[in-house]
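Feature request disguised as a bug: please show the residue count (407) next to Tetratricopeptide repeat protein in the output. Example input:
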Amino acid sequence: MTQTKKNIAILVLGMHRSGTSALTRVINLAGWASAKTLMRSAEFNETGHWESLPIVRIDDRILAALDRGWADPKPAGKDWQTRADVAAFGDEAREAIASEFDDAGRIVVKDPRLSRLLPFWIEALAAKGYETRCLIAARHPLEIADSLARRDGMTREHALLLWQSHMIEAEYHSRGLPRALIGYDAVLSDWRATLGSAMAAIGAPFAPAASACEAIEAFLDPRHRHAALPADAILEADDIAQPFKDLYSTLQDGSLDANAERFDRLRRDWLAAWEALSPGPRASPYAEDLPATFVEQSQALENEGDAQEAITMARKAVEADPSISRHHHHLGTLLFRENMLDEADAVLRRAIALYPKEARYHHSHARLLQRLGRLGEARSAASRAAALEPGNRMFQRYLKKILADGE
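Example output, currently without the count:
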């Protein structure tokens, strides 16, 4: 009797900045299908996010329906997955799975938000014929906090609360599924043994061809890692709250199912702490002063047609953390649209100085320089944008046009 081949979806869970992107790409290179419509690489993920844009957008809208955002560590509330406004996203989620993965029998799906919305996606994947297996990425939480401070201007307390929520919810919601905990350090040091063991534990085939192994070796570059701390650094720190240390110690044991009682206790304490800290269903205040929140507010105001208030909020984002290049770019484009050209020039130059590898920054600057009548400089900026992204047709067309101007 012929057995029906199982369709398997590996969900890569874990906190933002915990190595989920690298893990997803390795699994993809080993033969598992990734999504078609991927988020573009960026300053803090130069090798790619490996996240499906449609799935990320659905997750953001579900979180918004729950009065949460990606940066709010507060639990979503009891039985959130049964709410009608969450269930309303079901058809869209199933359509996204179908369009992003076609009929692939083995797929890998990654978005840190999945850790908190796992029940919703298990149901959507099952409806499309997929069995869910979970890999939970683990990284030193202080390394995550350092990374989020650089990328988003996030405080250590905020980052640790967010890490705690992601790990507790990923562990809880993945119970009863084939799952494994996988360390970021272990992937970097010995991906073959680490992935081989984890994939075997979840019953997922993992036999990359020689060419795939070469590609994985080339992809896993330790130079992309910006922070490395001793394993016991969090345990020895006097300024780290005990609940974070307890969760870290439990995760360090490596066995999820054997530590179910410890995880249950950690989850009960976590829920009780949030009930005391931020009672009721409303969002917590943690994301309110995050620079990215000011940018989100600025974008909303821009969409509403309130350009001046949009610029005001964009300025707040830059003032909150002047080291984030994308926030300078956002402010610069708003100033350009409002014909505040000299200031826009200075702000866009700052964005480029902070991160010169981003083609969009050079393209925006080229358009501004053209408006200012500085055609030679505009051509140079357009050339840089086109060189950084040779496959971007818009950048190539613009370069061709601006080179032809004045001939």
